[in-house]
């Protein structure tokens, strides 16, 4: 009996893996036929046919009509991710605010809600606000739609093995079982039982760029968020690099200037103190052009160091600092170009985050899709 149970479990896992492999293949190469999927995934045509039939029935996939070209013979039917029936919720837990977006499996933002919280309150108050905002967004769904995952982007390191926020310095949260608290808050609501996934805000923003806009030229993809703090997310070969304790990407505390200004972490000359200072980005105030230019130069230095370490296919910049526009980005590009020319190397590809101010919230939705379709990956 034990052997039969183990065998059944293995077969179920294999089937699930094959189903999700089809989903991920069509995410990267939409419009493939069943025959093309079988060849790409090394599966039998009958297996692919059976699995795609299930995935269509469940709302993961859809078929589209083939354009008539005049060719003789039956043309294979292209398959696509269905953007209408299964949905994701993505949440940005920022410094004093939360933003929730409702997205399709392919990243289209269908609805959004914002709310403010007092950073002096405890984390449970923030979670209750988040619960209300999630439910308000959920009520915007149509009756034919179903939410299958909730992603949360948090302003600090996340230990996925323990399902907890390790430390969020700007709100002073330490070792918070955020996932368990949110699931408990959602108990008895329409979102009870929906899978919840946590990750650092820069990490989810990086996933948003790769999951919802996959291009081979952007591998590895390095995303750097610049706001009150500075953080980075790195995706290599479709996998998010999180580190042993979930603290990979804390680049805001790389020292760029010996004996520089004091950082929130207690050290001097960190990237956060030189680039992501609250004074530089304070709402309602126009920062001095010289200060913005200097911050851009230091950001260029940081990106040069990260480029040397990871050799990314693409560097993406996001966060509130992008509102400064070319005043910040021009010195960034100039600094990167200067270092590249000195070394006789091409400049790294650099662009601004595709989802702009929604990079974290949409990225959190991408995290949910990523974990649901690759459940064995970190």
From TrEMBL:
Protein name: ROK family transcriptional regulator
Organism: Roseateles hydrophilus
